[in-house]
């Protein structure tokens, strides 16, 4: 009987350690200021986070109670003055043990039933928006970047394409249709909503609704090859007015060549020749569709789906030899003279 004690302590430690780790990770994730699903600002994300906290809290309480019951049982058994009297012991244990088992089963069933019902209600509420969205995002995942096309049911003329960025009007649900150009990816804006797989040959549909203005990071949530980790998008949730302004600006093309500086004007020619077969800039000769649309590139904060921050030095580094920055990237090194490089960077910086 004495060997029971260390075994119980070991069992207690095994039960408590994972819970303590999860709680510690959750606290670190919620407090370190980076994008985290623990800090949900989307309608579905908030519901799911609340459910997650409830289930975590219930699990912690259950672990504490079970641990306390085990410890109590061990201690009471040891202090029993009738220890050794086999007949008395047997009768007492059978009686009190059954009562504990009935109570334990009842409490367990109640907790599981409440958690199950809460999960069903939450997931049902998170599965669809309260009103039919009028704005649609067609998101196409590529190795390793995101193409995003906006369209609006009640305004067919609204249509434009961006890359590696998503803007959301706060308080308005948005329909999202997911397409893949190559392999399986997973679309994940942790602060707004849960993940959804992006599967070749199939259109998966989900919805998003931001409840609070702010920026966060979206990412690919499923391993999709060498640069899976560098497949980020910038998520901007903003007021509906700010969103309309942003969308209106997206629909206009690049500035006409007559308004460009001599360097940027020369850069536009270099761009059309060296970049235009893969990249598009609306309103210019650059019509490529293999690579991210760069019509408003200068207003983005990152280069290469989160590989670098968008500065002219980083841009020159990227254009000269992108694989040196992001090894698996499809963009080859672009051989340009120093003057051509300066001009093309000057041109790209006009693409607001
Ligand atoms: Cu795309 Cu991982």
Structural notes for this entry:
The chain has 352 residues and is of the alpha+beta class. Helix content is 44%, strand content 19%. The protein has helices spanning 4-31, 43-79, 86-127, 240-251, 262-274, 312-320, 322-325, 338-348, and strands at 135-142, 145-152, 155-163, 165-169, 174-180, 185-188, 196-198, 204-208, 214-220, 233-238, 302-303, 308-309. The strands form three sheets. It has a five-stranded mixed sheet, with helices on one face. The chain has a five-stranded mixed sheet with strand order 4-10-9-6-7, with helices on one face. Helix 6 crosses helix 8. It is elongated and about 90 Å long. Bound molecules: dinuclear copper ion (CUA). Dinuclear copper ion binds at residues 141, 144, 185, 220, 222-224, 228, 231.
């Amino acid at each position: 009987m004495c060997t029971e004690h260390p075994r119980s302590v070991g069992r207690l430690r095994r039960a408590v350690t994972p819970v303590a780790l999860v709680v510690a990770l959750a606290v670190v994730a919620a407090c370190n200021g980076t994008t985290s699903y623990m800090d949900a600002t989307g309608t579905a994300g908030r519901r799911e986070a609340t459910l997650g906290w409830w289930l975590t809290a219930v699990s912690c309480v259950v672990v504490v109670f079970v641990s306390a019951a085990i410890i109590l049982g061990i201690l009471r058994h040891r202090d029993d003055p009738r220890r050794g009297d086999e007949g008395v012991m047997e009768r007492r244990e059978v009686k009190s043990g059954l009562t504990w088992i009935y109570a334990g089963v009842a409490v367990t069933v109640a907790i599981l039933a409440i958690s199950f019902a809460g999960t069903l209600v939450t997931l049902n509420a998170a599965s669809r928006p309260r009103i039919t969205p009028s704005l649609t995002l067609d998101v196409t995942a590529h190795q390793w970047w995101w193409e995003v096309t906006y369209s609006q049911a009640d305004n067919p003329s609204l249509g434009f394409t961006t890359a590696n960025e998503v803007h959301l009007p706060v308080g308005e649900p948005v329909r999202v249709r997911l397409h893949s150009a190559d392999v399986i990816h997973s679309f994940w804006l942790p602060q707004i909503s849960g993940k959804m797989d992006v599967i070749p040959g199939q259109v998966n549909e989900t919805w998003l609704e931001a409840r609070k203005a702010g920026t966060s990071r979206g990412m690919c949530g499923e391993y999709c090859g060498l640069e899976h980790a560098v497949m980020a998008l910038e998520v901007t949730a903003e007021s509906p007015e700010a969103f309309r302004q942003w969308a209106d600006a997206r629909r206009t093309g690049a500035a006409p060549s007559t308004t460009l500086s001599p360097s940027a004007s020369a850069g536009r020619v270099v761009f059309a020749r060296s970049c235009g077969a893969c990249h598009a800039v609306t309103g210019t000769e650059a019509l490529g569709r293999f690579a991210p649309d760069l019509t408003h590139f200068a207003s983005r904060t990152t280069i290469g789906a989160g590989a670098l921050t968008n500065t002219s030095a980083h841009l020159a580094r990227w254009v000269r030899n992108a694989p040196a920055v992001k090894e698996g990237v499809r963009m080859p090194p672009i051989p340009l003279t120093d003057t051509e490089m300066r001009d093309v960077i000057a041109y790209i910086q006009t693409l607001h």
